[in-house]
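Notes on consecutive records. When two proteins share a document, each keeps its own sequence and its own token line. Never mix them. Below: protein one.
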Amino acid sequence: MTGAALQGLWYLAGLSREVNPGAMVRRILFGEPVVLGRTGAGAPFALRDVCPHRAAPLSAGRVSGEAVTCPYHAWSFSAADGRCLSVPALPSDDARDPSTIRVARYALAEANGLLWIWYGAGEPLFAAPDIGLPPSFRPKTATVVETSGPFDEAVVGLVDPAHTPVVHKQWWWREGRPRADKTKAFAPTALGFKMTAHAPSSNSLIYKAIGGAPVTEIEFRLPALRLEHISTATRRVLALTAMTPGEAGTTRIVHLNYWDFALFDALLPFAQGMADSFLKQDGDILRLQNENLSRTRHRALYLGDADEPAKWYFALNKAWSEKGEAEFVNPLAPATLRWRT
């Protein structure tokens, strides 16, 4: 696997609804072929999508109960741990034990309609991300964009407030509305930092549509997860964006919206279109940026408080990369930032 992604962390592999019982989906994650699937009983699994025999993709084969069968020579592997269960071409009296052969397995966790994959050696050292919603919540909208460029540059976009009024121009967002000075308080968290609870921007129609007196809290967590919780006395919304390295030089961006009130349900097609438009703009600007980054060495020039979260991300990244076997110590301190959007 490539060195672009931090190891020993959970990444978003996909959505629960993308993988049906008895089915498999091929995905390139961290530069490697991975097959996501479900057994006949519905248990999710993730294996390296390369048969150790002749490198055929297991995802092109079939799921039989708790096993995955290769499409080339019908070698069969346990979905649970990757052990080879059978090699049909061996004579019936052959004494060799197929279970000594394995295909690499990835730990997978499922919650709130999401499939999380552990990137790192051995078993997970801690639980998959808790996104702060009851178990019954599932995404109402889901948008996926594949973009090009360095993974770190894509992640910086998650924490960059200054690009929002420039890149995202929609009548329902902030189009044509004047900029205003913002002052926001930030606090470190276990794996990142958060903009503490505050009243959201008054120049966005989205927040007004929620009604009441909404309060929002925005959190960034390593490796590449942004959670924006918006709540009133009776309503709850979560906008979740997660990024995962794909092919070398590409990033898979997934944006999801959760909510718990009927008004937005009635507007679901409209809300999906809004989310698609919003994320497409992020993908487009990253591809444009990469037109230069792929051709020239460039060191970012960070200026002002709006760029501080980007520097925080790199400080967190460095601290995680250098911690070795020790407990992670967040290097950040509480701060108050000012910018204009």
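Protein two starts on the next line and is unrelated to protein one.
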Amino acid sequence: MSLLKKNFCEIKEFLYEFFYYTRAERNAALILAFLCFFFFCLPTIYTLLVPPPPPIDFSEYRDVVAKLMKEPPSGQEVATTTDDEQARLRGDITVAPPVELFSFNPNTATKEELIRLGLSDRTAQTLVNYRAKGGKFFKKEDLKKIYGLRTEDYERLAPWITIEKEKSDSGKKSNKEKKQKVTAGKNQTPAIAQPEKKREIVAQKKKNYPIKRTAAPVIIDINKATPEEWQQLRGIGPYYAKRIVRFRDKLGGFASISQVAETYHLPDSTFQQIKPFLKTSSIFKKININQCSLNELKEHPYISNLQATILFNYRKQHGNFHNMGELKKLKPGFNEKDWKRLEPYLSFGE
């Protein structure tokens, strides 16, 4: 019986501590419940207090419209149009211009000339775009490659296509002459290419350009380094340097080098690169668990708002903590990993 009673008391104490609310929190919950109930009932109350507007009568309007649809006004004739005329008025049917047939070169003909030959505006624009992108017609059959060109249009225009052959002999000769000049220039060895002059040029370049020397690696104290000193490490710019220092100041110092990797947005590849150049020192700020306020607990990166509330309320109800063993007995909301991270940052001063 004593064991059951002890277990029952422990469960009761745990539930009391976990579901404990202050007077202000209870008042806030009551006000919130009242507001929810009020806004839930508001639509019903509004319909009871404000009557709905009377419905509008459209019967007279419907009668007038029906009368006008049945017969036209007296003394006037209703104009009627055919379906073709209505489509032409809407723009669905366009009157095609007269077709003219004349000799043309598809490599030089303008868009207007192609339209006069009977091609549609879209097909003529497609042909012009094909030429603008470097396309060329070498024979009549090449015109069939144009997208949208109908077979009957090609058969109608084929007898009128004239493609002039370009004189490519002169071009080929000029290209051959250029290639010969280039190869001749490559085969000729300039006077500068002699070994002695090469050595002189290299020696002058060495004098003019100083030899770059790599700076000695810098070792950074993770708890004392300023943002400017962090930036001396490869891969750390102003953004990462400020984030590392801000995270360190919130913690109260780094207890180990691995904590630097917990900095928000710091890539693991960058941390592994700078890890050999880091050294540790003692933490510069601890939390007095028996004297700190609730806000001070919440500001620490390793303590959540719920955990801070549990610690603060437990200390308020049961008194101060004397060592880490007493603190670890507070199991709700904490696990062994949390205590291991927090232990370097806690002190038990009265």
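For the record: Confidence is low (pLDDT under 50) at residues 188-193.
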